[in-house]
Specification:
Elements: H1 3-12, H2 17-29, H3 34-41, H4 50-62, H5 71-77, H6 84-103, H7 107-112, H8 115-130, H9 135-148, H10 154-166, H11 172-187
Length: about 190
């Protein structure tokens, strides 16, 4: 697939499985095209930005290092995205980055993710936690913030307060994840999901 075809399919906004697989494969073969996906996601008022966001997530699930050269652009777009269909893949990518950084302590991620990136992810994650976002977004974000709490002392306390406040009215998924996170914070044990 050439670059023009890649962009043309993204412009269609078609969410057919055959296109998703083709676009993910093209992204893996052409890492610079991650920038194209981020440009689409940056069109925050365009509902078609959900499809490129999903392609970005699926690409990152296969090779998370693809996002590293674009971390500044990725972190810059995070506070601007509004559609849950875009926020959810972005939240998952944040979670994957924090797992690589904190749990796996992968040297590539330790070198590439700066203190500023961590601060920006922390800020947007709390925004997603306190607003009315879908359960999947909040579940990914709880994990992200829990991991960030090992670097920034204040996060666990704020995260616990936020979860406790929303727990009574949360969905079953929110309650399950929230209780696990609260237990991990209270006991100091590693979060097991």
């Amino acid at each position: 697939m050439d670059k023009n075809t890649f962009i043309e399919i993204l412009n269609k906004g078609s969410n057919k499985l055959v296109y998703r697989d083709m676009l993910v494969d093209a992204s893996l073969k052409n890492p610079a095209w991650i920038g194209i996906l981020l440009n689409f996601i940056n069109n925050i008022n365009d509902k078609n930005s959900t499809f490129p966001a999903r392609i970005l997530e699926l690409s990152c699930r296969k090779d998370l290092t693809l996002i590293l050269p674009f971390l500044d652009a990725f972190c810059a777009v995070l506070p601007r995205v509004t559609f849950d269909g875009v926020v959810r893949p972005c939240a998952k990518i944040c979670e994957l980055l924090m797992i690589a950084y904190f749990n796996k302590k992968d040297s590539v991620f330790l070198k590439s993710i700066s203190h500023d990136h961590l601060k920006k992810i922390t800020e947007v994650s709390f925004d997603w936690m306190i607003t009315d976002k879908a359960t999947a977004i909040q579940a990914y974000t709880m994990q992200t913030l829990y991991l960030l709490g090992s670097k920034f002392d204040w996060i666990h306390q704020e995260l616990a307060l936020t979860i406790e406040k929303k727990l009574p009215n949360g969905s079953t998924g929110y309650k399950n994840r929230g209780r696990k996170v609260l237990k991990a914070i209270a006991t100091g044990n590693r979060l097991k999901l």
